[in-house]
Amino acid sequence: MLDIARGKGFDVHVRDPKYSTSVIPMSEVYSYIASEVTGEHIAWINVTNPLAESEVYDRAVEAYRSLDSKYDCLLSVVDVQDYLFHNGKPVNFQPKPWPKSQDLSGVCAMSFVVNILRREDMVRWGSCVGTSPYFFYLDRVSSWDVDFQEDFDFCEMIYRQGKP
What we know:
Layout: H1 2-7, H2 26-36, E1 41-44, H3 54-65, E2 73-79, E3 85-86, E4 89-90, E5 108-118, H4 119-125, E6 133-137, H5 140-143, H6 149-161
Helix pairs in contact: 2-4
């Protein structure tokens, strides 16, 4: 991953082990890393999305470079087509008439495949999310995040089969 990033003209940073523990809040990790590197922009790319291929990053960089000034960052996201509730109330659907899950829309989730923003903003915000993000939509497979053993098993199976 680091070699690919370098090959695309990005600087990379291997973080201090102190900032790799669950004790340090992510806002401190974001500010720390952004203050440790040089450059005007940062592409925050996690290793926990193993099915995202290099073309995803190429498209993200291209999209970021052509963003309208009303956006302050690029966030990779995936459509959420699940029935969501918040405080006991439906978020993305009305129960009557009951919609098909494939018709649910209007909700997306950050995939953390790639987030791109100005370095100084990341230091200031302690986050890779601004106030006016551009949503860079990806498919579910490319966005798959490994949090649990089942996620790893799924990604390994897809990888061995040759990702579609």
